[in-house]
Amino acid sequence: MPLDSQIVQYIRTQAAEERGEVPAFLLDHRRLWAALFLPRYGFSDSIHQRLTKRWDLLERIEAFSHNGRVAVNTGGRDCDMCVSDGDIRVIDATYTAFKALYDALEDSAEGPFWAYPIPWEEQANIRQTSRDLALEAFESGHPHVVYP
């Protein structure tokens, strides 16, 4: 972005702040706002990264939504080294609904887990899988090492 544009945006931002409103271009360019203005207001890098990840998630939810719903692929590994993947959950296409699902998965997780929105058309192609990695390691002759 040219320096002239940055200066103009900075002046517009200052004028809008004095009027107590948020400039329209900041609402339209959330990532630009995060990159240029969060450090200016004293946010640390970790907060900046978390907000950027949240906005990326919101953009994925918006892009993959279908009639106000979104498909989420979930999976994880439990304490017995059983891995499951491809459990499709359909939720409302909002950050609050995704966060509620994520929190519910986190509460019942016995190990690492994942949940991410997928394109609506992809859910038909995803198959639910489950593997017992400890049993596979035992059968392969190396029960002391588990390979995911």
Could you explain how this protein is built, in words?
- The protein is an alpha+beta fold.
- It is 48% helix and 20% strand.
- The chain is built from six helices and four strands, in the order ααααββαββα.
- The chain has helices at residues 3-19, 24-28, 30-37, 45-64, 95-108, 133-139; strands at 69-77, 82-92, 113-118, 129-132.
Fold blueprint:
Blueprint: H1 3-19, H2 24-28, H3 30-37, H4 45-64, E1 69-77, E2 82-92, H5 95-108, E3 113-118, E4 129-132, H6 133-139
Antiparallel strand pairs: 1-2, 1-3, 2-4
Helix pairs in contact: 3-4
Distance between the termini: 44 Å
Total beta strand runs: 4
Major sheet: 4 strands, antiparallel
Total separate domains: 2
Structural class of the helix and strand makeup? alpha+beta
Number of helices: 6
Arrangement of strands in the largest sheet: 3-1-2-4
Q: Could you tell me the mean pLDDT?
A: 79
- Gyration radius (Cα, Å) is 22 Å
Approximate strand percentage: 15-25%
Shape designation: elongated
Q: What are the low-pLDDT stretches, counting only 5+ consecutive residues below 50?
A: none
Search tags:
alpha+beta, 2 domains, 6 helices, 4 strands
Brief summary:
By secondary structure, the protein is an alpha+beta fold. Helices cover 48% and strands 20% of the residues. β1 and β2 (82-92) form a beta hairpin.
